[in-house]
Amino acid sequence: MVVVTTSDDPRPATYYHLARAVLYREYLIFVRYPANAIGGIVIALFFFGVLFYGGRMVAGQALTDSIEGIVVGYFLWTLSVGAYSSVSNDIASEVQWGTLERHITTPFGFAPVALLKGVAKVVRTFLTSSVVLVIMLLLTGTSLQLDPITVVTVAGLAITSVLGLGFAAGGITVLYKRIGNWLNLLQFGFIVLISAPVLDAPWSRFLPLAHGSAMLQRAMVDGVRLWEFGVGDLGLLVAVAVGYLLGGYVVFHYATRRARRLGVLGDY
Predict the structure, then answer these.
(1) Is residue 9 part of a domain?
(2) Does the reported pTM lie above 0.85?
(3) What is the DSSP string of 122-165?
(4) How far apart, in whole angstroms, are the C-alpha atoms of residue 187 and residue 184?
(5) C-alpha to C-alpha distances, 40 to 7, 81, 101, 114, 132, nearest whole angstrom
(6) 76 belongs to a structural domain
(7) 31 by DSSP, 3-state: which?
(8) Domain coverage including residue 42
(9) Which segments of the chain have a pLDDT < 50?
(10) Within a domain: residue 267?
C-alpha cells in the first residue's frame, strides 16, 4: 500500500512554534492593553519615588551615598517580582478562569507551556524594568555601568532561581487554589534576599537572588564585566539558577499530578 502525502497535510507543531506563539501572545497583550503596561511602570516608579525622596528626608546624605546600590537592588527586585508572578499569578488566573484544562490537553504538556509563558513574561519584564531603570537614573542623577551582555546575563541567571520559585508556587496553586495572600507575601521576601550580606554570611550565596544580586552590584556599580568574574562566581550563579529551576519544576510536577489524582485539577 502506498501512502501519498501532499504539501497541504498539517505538520505537527514543534517547540519553536509554541515559543513563537507564546511570545506573540505576550506582544499582543502588551500592545493592545497599553494602559495596563504603562500602569505597571508608573506604580514601580511611584514606590521608588517614595523610597528615594522619603528616605532622603529621613537619612539625608547616608541615602545619597548608597543610592547606586539602592537603584540596582530595586531594578533587580522589579525583575524578580515579574519573573515570580509570571508563572504563579498566571496559573492562578487560569484556575479561576476555568481554562487550565486547555494547557493539560496540549501535546507539549502543562509544564513546558507554563515555562515558556513565564519566559515570555520575563522578556517583557526586562523591557519595562529597563524603562524604570533609565527613569530612576534620571531622577536620582546617578550613573551606572550598563554593559548589556553582563547585565542581561547576570540578571537573567539571578531571576531564573525566582522563576523556579514561581513554578513551585504555581503547582501549589493548582492543588490548593486560593493562596494568593501567601504568594504576594513571598514577593517582599525578595527584598531580604537581594540585600543579603553574602560577604558576612557566605552560606547565603546559595539562596535565590543573593549571589546574583551581589554580582549585579559589582557589574553595574563597579563596572566589572562578565568575563572578569571568577569561574567560581559564575559557576555558583549558574548552579543556583539551575538548581532552583529544577526544584520548582519537580514541585510543580508532583503537585499537578496529585491534583489529578485527587480529581481537583479543574475545580475551583
Answers:
(1) no
(2) no
(3) HHHHHHHHHHHHHHHHHHHT------HHHHHHHHHHHHHHHHHH
(4) 5
(5) 46, 12, 29, 22, 10
(6) yes
(7) helix
(8) 15-262
(9) 1-7, 62
(10) no
